[in-house]
């Protein structure tokens, strides 16, 4: 019965768009929806829209990097972002695990272990190619038309593109979703583009990266530096101002301290001024320390720019459509509509929203449902959980301590915190110095939890479930009355008893009391 009901509902939803089209008279446009950009947000939106009977076409085109790197359909996450990054993160954690295995009694030789960079890159790229292939098959099966070209506006309803044969074609769309994402920035200094690479190149880089200068201390810089270190290379991170701007300061400093303990070098308050190639092929980087104006230089094998990303608006000819922008991004309202009502934007290209894959995907899906299935549900950009994939990962959801204090005032914020000792760290005697977590809560009322922060193993897996709880109105009382799963590190959230205000020592005495 339930199956029948669901079936009927699905069939009804599939009829929605053709019926609406019929009711509104003749077909005025070639497509109900054209999506510019086949990455996380664009593909999610396109695939959802066809579920409701919409005629959908999706453009995806990758302009090669200055170093010549290019990739297939699927956007940043699949090709040069989350997926290859997570695989390299895993590769680096496995190197650490080999040493731990010896302490656990495995009869393996952990001396002088070295990764084979080329083999790792090949494995990662093979996986990506299989995802590209599955994506194309999926689009074909779902009947989303896919065009591997750069699309741009001629007017608010007309998109132009060049075919592989070089012919110029135009098509019209009732609705357009711009989901073109962004690409890494390069600093405006001599040698930057010619000699440096970015995250767009590193995951398919044929050469051993060797001693690497990573410029930038955001997500990309820290994650790349960490997997390179774990793989045995010697990264240095150049920090312009502070590490992980926008995150909880205590957690960010703890993360930097954890990286330093693992041997990653930091050049603080430093900016690069030029890069040149030496006769021996290595790269000489000149830089300035901005706090004391001293100049310096150092030689590296690879320079990786991780200084943020630029929205890909330049090729879109947005002026022809009348779409308003700010700082290389598109301005949208709460319905993801741009300044032109039938043109929408989702994902990284939106001004002032988190640049994360699940954000792009959910926003894309919800938009398709509103456009073609009569839904009213809006994307909620608040309390989005996120993880920095460093060897001890840092994951968080909700407010930082600073944000809570700024919003409510210091007297209205209670911070519960504690260090902890993961059971599995004891035998290999791993450092527990940076295993720390905190819950930022309201002082009064039901002590609603405003933010959760965790640094330790598999932080992303730990915080994901707590993110749902926080969105459901989690309170301190509920958290502390939740029975933990022992022995896990996630259970530490249920054991938080010390407030910062109390001044008590947050270091644990034992694991099980
Ligand atoms: P994209 O995925 O960038 O897709 C846009 C697509 O449109 C691209 O293929 C682009 O080439 C194409 N395009 C551009 N202009 C045009 C045009 N005019 N016509 C046709 N096609 C066009 N997020 C996470 O949640 N977790 C992570 O662990 C994570 N790790 C990351 C690691 C790195 C190194 C990077 C760089 C990013 C990471 N991100 C992560 C962020 C995540 O990748 C992005 O938020 C996400 O990919 C954004 O999706 P999107 O659809 O907005 O854009
Ligand atoms: P960010 O904007 O997060 O960080 C850029 C870094 O580069 C900052 O430290 C910034 O310093 C520095 N910087 C900027 N300009 C210069 C310059 N001219 N010279 C030297 N340093 C400079 O960008 P990322 O590229 O790291 O990440 C982009 C986005 O991708 C993130 O916001 C995130 O949403 C997404 N992402 C998500 C990941 C995840 O979920 N795990 C992983 C990777 C990326 P300053 O603070 O002084 O401005």
Automatic annotation (TrEMBL):
Q: Which GO terms describe its molecular function?
A: flavin adenine dinucleotide binding; glutathione-disulfide reductase (NADPH) activity; thioredoxin-disulfide reductase (NADPH) activity
Q: Is Secreted one of the keywords UniProt gives this record?
A: no
Q: What is this protein called?
A: thioredoxin-disulfide reductase (NADPH)
One Pfam assignment: Pyr_redox_dim
- Identify the species of origin: Drosophila busckii (Fruit fly)
Task: List the catalytic activities from the record.
Answer: [thioredoxin]-dithiol + NADP(+) = [thioredoxin]-disulfide + NADPH + H(+)
Q: Where found in the cell?
A: Mitochondrion
NCBIfam families attached to this UniProt entry: TGR
Q: Which part of the chain is the Pyridine nucleotide-disulphide oxidoreductase dimerisation domain? A: 384-495
């Amino acid at each position: 019965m339930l199956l029948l009901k669901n079936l009927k509902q699905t069939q009804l939803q599939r009829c929605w768009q053709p019926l609406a089209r019929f009711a509104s008279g003749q077909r005025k446009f070639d497509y109900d929806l054209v999506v510019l950009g086949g990455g996380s947000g664009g593909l999610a939106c396109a695939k959802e829209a066809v579920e409701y009977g919409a005629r959908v076409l999706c453009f995806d085109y990758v302009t090669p990097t200055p170093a010549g790197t290019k990739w297939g359909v699927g956007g940043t996450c699949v090709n040069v972002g989350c997926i290859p990054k997570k695989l390299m993160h895993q590769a680096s954690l496995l190197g650490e695990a080999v040493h731990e295995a010896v302490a656990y009694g495995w009869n393996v030789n952990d001396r002088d272990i070295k990764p084979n960079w080329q083999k790792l890159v090949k494995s990662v790229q093979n996986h990506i190619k299989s995802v590209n292939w599955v994506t194309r098959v999926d689009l074909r099966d779902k009947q989303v038309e896919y065009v591997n070209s750069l699309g741009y506006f001629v007017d608010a309803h007309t998109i132009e593109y060049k075919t592989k044969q070089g012919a110029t074609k135009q098509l019209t769309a009732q609705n357009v979703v711009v989901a073109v994402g962004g690409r890494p920035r390069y600093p405006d200094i001599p040698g930057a583009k010619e000699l440096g690479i970015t995250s767009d190149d590193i995951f398919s880089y044929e050469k051993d990266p060797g001693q690497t200068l990573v410029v930038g201390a955001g997500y990309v810089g820290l994650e790349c530096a960490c997997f390179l270190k774990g793989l045995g290379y010697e990264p240095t991170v150049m920090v312009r101002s502070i590490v992980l701007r926008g995150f909880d300061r205590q957690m960010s400093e703890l993360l930097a301290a954890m990286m330093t303990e693992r041997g990653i070098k930091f050049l603080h308050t430093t900016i690069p001024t030029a890069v040149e190639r030496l006769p021996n092929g290595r790269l000489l980087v000149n830089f300035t320390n901005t706090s004391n104006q001293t100049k310096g230089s150092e030689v590296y094998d690879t320079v990786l720019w991780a200084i943020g990303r630029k929205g890909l608006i330049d090729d879109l000819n947005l002026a022809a459509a009348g779409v308003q922008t700010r700082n290389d991004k598109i301005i949208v309202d709460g319905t993801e509509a741009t300044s032109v009502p039938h043109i929408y934007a989702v994902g990284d290209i939106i001004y002032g929203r988190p640049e994360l894959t699940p954000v792009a995907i959910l926003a894309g899906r919800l938009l398709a449902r509103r456009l073609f299935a009569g839904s009213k549900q809006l994307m909620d950009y608040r309390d989005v959980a996120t993880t920095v994939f460093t060897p001890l990962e840092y994951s968080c959801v909700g407010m930082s301590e600073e944000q809570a204090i700024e919003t409510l005032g210091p007297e209205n914020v209670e911070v519960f915190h504690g260090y902890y000792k993961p059971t599995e760290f004891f035998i290999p005697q791993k450092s527990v110095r940076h295993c720390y977590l905190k819950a930022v809560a309201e002082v009064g009322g039901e002590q609603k939890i405003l933010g959760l922060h965790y640094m330790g193993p598999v932080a992303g897996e730990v915080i994901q479930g707590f993110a749902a709880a926080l969105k459901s109105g989690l309170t301190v009382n509920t958290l502390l009355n939740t029975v933990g799963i022992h022995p896990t590190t996630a259970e530490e959230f249920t054991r938080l008893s010390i407030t910062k205000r109390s001044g008590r020592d947050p270091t644990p005495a034992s694991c099980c009391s």
